Amino acid sequence: MNKIVDKKIFSENVVQLEVEAPLIAKAHRPGHFVILRALEKGERIPLTIVASDVERGTITMVVQKVGISTAKLVALNEGEMITDLVGPLGKATHIENVGTVLACGGGVGVAPLLPIVKGMKEAGNRVVSIIAARHKDLIILEEEIRRYSDEVLIMTDDGSYGEKGLITAGMDEIINREKVDLAIAIGPAIMMKFCAELTRKYNLPTVASLNAIMVDGTGMCGACRVVVGGRTRFTCIDGPEFDAHEVDFDNLMLRLRGI
C-alpha cells in the first residue's frame, strides 16, 4: 500500500496527490506513468507521473474525477492509503536538444506535459508552452510550467484568462512568428487531432501522448490498442507517445467512447 503524503485541490473534480513510492520515484523519467487501484475492489487507473522526488521517495500525480473509481481516489486524503500502485510504465520521452520546442497542454493534459517541459528545457531547448482550458478555473500547474518555459501562452475558450480561443490558434500564432523544431501535444483526443492537423500543414514534427483505455499496462490485455501508421500498437508498452501525424485519432476517439 502507498501512503498519500500531500493533497492539493485544483478544482471540484481535479486534485494533485503526492504518494510514497520510493522505487518508482528513483526510476521515473518524463513520459512514464503508473497504474493504481484506490481501493481493494476498485478499477485500475492509469496516471502519468507529474513529478518525482527521490529524496522524499514520492511521486506526484494529477487525478480528474470522471467515474466511480476516480471519484474514490479523489476523495482520499493525506495519511490515507492507495491499495496498490505499479510503475513506472511506458516508454520515457525522447529528450534531446532540437532547438525550439512548442509544448501544448489542454486541461489535465498539462500534468503529463510538465515533466517533458522540464526535461526539454534542461536539455538546452528553447521551450514555448501553451496551456489551454475551457475557462480560467480549469487552468492547472501554470506556475510550474512557467518555471521551465522561456515563454507561456494561456488560451481559454471563453476568454476568461489569457487569450480567447482554442489551443490551435495559439499554436498557429507561434509557428508563424518563429521557427519551431518540435511540437508536443497532450490533452483530449479531439484536441490532439486538431493540433496534429495544424502542424501537418507546416511539416512540423509532432508528438502526441495518447490517453487510451488501459487495464494491465503490460501489453497483455490489448485494451489500449491504437492505430499508428496503419499498424496496431499498444499504448502501454509502445507509447504512450507516438508520431501525432501517424495516429488514427478518429479510431482512438471511438474506442474511448466504447465503440
Walk me through what this model shows.
This protein is α/β, with parallel strands linked by helices and 259 residues long. It folds into 2 domains: 2-89, Elongation Factor Tu (Ef-tu), domain 3; 100-256, Nucleotide-binding domain of ferredoxin-NADP reductase (FNR) module (Rossmann fold). The protein has helices at residues 22-27, 68-75, 110-122, 142-147, 167-177, 189-201, 235-238, 249-256; strands spanning 2-9, 14-20, 33-37, 45-53, 58-64, 81-82, 84-89, 100-106, 126-133, 151-156, 163-164, 182-186, 206-209, 225-228, 231-234, 241-243. A 7-stranded antiparallel sheet has the order 6-1-2-5-4-3-7. Helix 5 runs parallel beside helix 6 (189-201) and helix 6 (189-201) packs antiparallel against helix 8 (249-256). The longest helix has 13 residues, at 110-122. The radius of gyration is 17 Å and the shape is globular.
Q: What is the CATH-assigned architecture of the largest domain? A: 3-Layer(aba) Sandwich
What class do helices, strands and sheet pairing give? alpha/beta
Q: What portion of residues belong to β-strands?
A: 25-35%
* Helix and strand sequence: EEHEEEHEEEHEHEEHEHEEEHEH
Radius of gyration: 17 Å
Terminal CA distance: 35 Å
Spatially, the strands of the biggest sheet line up as 6-1-2-5-4-3-7
Q: Determine the number of helices (DSSP H or I, runs of at least 4 residues).
A: 8
In CATH, the topology of the largest domain is named Rossmann fold
Helix content: 25-40%
- Per the principal axes of the C-alpha atoms, what is the gross shape? globular
Number of folding domains?
A: 2
Q: What's the number of extended β-strand segments?
A: 16
Q: Please state the average pLDDT score.
A: 92
Task: Give a short account of the largest sheet.
Answer: 7 strands, antiparallel
Uncertain regions spanning at least 5 consecutive residues: none
- The top level CATH class name of the largest domain: Alpha Beta
